[in-house]
Automatic annotation (TrEMBL):
This is Methyltransferase domain-containing protein. It comes from the Eukaryota. InterPro entries: Methyltranfer_dom, METTL24. It holds the Pfam family Methyltransf_22. It comes from Meganyctiphanes norvegica. Residues 12-136 form the Methyltransferase domain.
Length: 139
């Protein structure tokens, strides 16, 4: 197991993820694809995956992410959320404006990126407790 990414917050590590790099399960040397859902403001795991030769796509969406560019430190950044189904939700913001959240299931995202026939080597989800719902209903 290799611990990748993360930073310290109030003297405690936060955001790092453990990844199995055993020879029989790690990606081959030809190509590696990583999806990272729920990045928040921490791209450290995603940058670490790039160092291992992976093509990395990070996904998250809220009003704070609206100014992020489509590429952050070599990571392809897409402003959508992982969901059980295709869904648009609107939330009233404190300033009175409405913010639109876009949810897509994994297979829809893969199709949109033309990855439906590509092995997804690493799938990282940090989506505030919705991980098991997503697994049981759409993956």
């Amino acid at each position: 197991m290799l611990e990748l990414g993360g930073k310290y917050c109030r003297k405690y590590p936060d955001g790092s993820k453990k990844v199995c790099m055993d020879k029989d399960v790690s990606p081959g040397s030809d190509y590696c694809l990583s999806y990272s859902f729920g990045v928040g403001n921490d791209f450290s795991f995603d940058r670490a995956m790039i160092k291992y030769g992976c093509e990395v796509y990070a996904f998250d969406q809220d009003k704070f992410h609206s100014h992020y560019p489509s590429v952050v430190d070599g990571v392809q950044y897409i402003k959508i959320r992982l969901g059980k189904e295709r869904l648009m939700m609107y939330k009233l913001q404190p300033d009175g404006s409405m913010f639109k959240f876009t949810y897509r299931p994994l297979d829809d995202i893969q199709r949109g990126l033309e990855h439906q026939n590509v092995t997804l080597d690493y799938l990282k989800m940090d989506i505030e407790g919705a991980e098991w719902d997503i697994f049981s209903e759409s993956i």
